[in-house]
């Protein structure tokens, strides 16, 4: 029986090659089952990791357990550095136990999240642990924990709704359960994107997707939510540019993810470079309304405009070079081979023998691959109910967050003359004041940045052709 059990654990429903073909053709989020049997990382409970890390401090983000109608961004959270053992004692409520800096944050009022922890840095003195994560079984040869991040949280810990500018995402749930709320790229306008707070490669939503303020964001009613609760051992595939809000639903959760590079990332890097240059230029300029915490704590600091423009130029040249290489490679392909150039996780061009397009995938869904379906009708009903709930907590924050934080509204003018017609001055005072953040929401809107990126690359190609012809 033991031999049979070991054999069953080693046999996966999809080979690495089959998994690559499936990932290439998937157009929606999906959950892989029975693909991680035998992975040592499944033993990475918070208790186990506490023993591995010992006295090494880990940074935690803390947020209040309260319902609002606005996202709780990372700039609004508190932060502590503590040992995992102190974190565990805090969650267990042990009287007299050493909870370190958590003593200032009652467990009943706060959640805690050790998020975005790069395993390569966390376990740099224990590199053997990298091998516990085996993304190679998903067809990404050589990819393991070194290219992954670790997430440890308590119930209620969450990541604000956002999309990642680069690549796609594979997420393994190790301990506890996490609930994912995903929205397709086509719903971007309904999610009201913003780059404040600014974080490279993350576009945040202004909507609290669990408790939306539909008076401020009525278009969100049309967003198509895809919701799934991820269980230990399961792997979620998040396609490129899918919005997602993630929350821990168990007392302690542990997960590991890896962002997989895609061909389109070269263009995305240009867009991100342009965005950074514009945001930093406007937000670092002293003004009456530039007093907010606009830089995400994950960013190391504010780069100078010279540095940002160097980044723009480097990104444009690198992207143009990649596009030229792909074009020349396509010209040298066999006439019958019109497929586009594909690259593996290390950015190397795949050969004809290992191309994921060598065999079509009809319908990969089944007992070992479950699609994350759209929950639009249910989520719409839920949103309407929540927006009408008489709960005092919700009502209080509906009024508090009625208007955009970046859009300052004047109070109604008291004309006092009894006239039913309002004066021009009174009407003018009712008009909202456009702030720097309002301006940025327009200037660095994903649609605008995409067009600017296109124009920059076109301009560079024209300059390159001119320079080349002059040299000839």
Q: Give the proportion of residues in helices.
A: 25-40%
What order do the SSEs take from the amino end to the carboxyl end, as H and E?
HHEHEEHEHEEEEEEEEEEHHEHHEHEHH
Mean pLDDT: 84
Strand order of the largest sheet: 3-2-4-5-14-7-12-1-15
Radius of gyration: 25 Å
Envelope shape: globular
Let me know the number of strands.
Answer: 17
Q: N- to C-terminal separation?
A: 74 Å
Number of helices: 12
Largest sheet: 9 strands, antiparallel
Uncertain segments of ≥5 residues (pLDDT<50)? 1-7, 336-357, 377-418, 468-472
Describe the structure.
This protein is an alpha+beta fold and 472 residues long. It has helices at residues 2-10, 16-25, 46-53, 84-92, 119-122, 265-283, 305-331, 376-388, 392-400, 424-430, 436-443, 446-471; strands spanning 30-32, 58-64, 78-82, 110-118, 149-154, 158-164, 168-175, 178-183, 193-199, 202-205, 226-230, 235-238, 243-248, 252-260, 369-371, 407-408, 433-434. The protein contains twelve helices and 17 strands. A hairpin with a 2-residue loop joins strand 9 (193-199) and strand 10 (202-205). Residues 1-7, 336-357, 377-418 and 468-472 have low confidence and may be disordered.
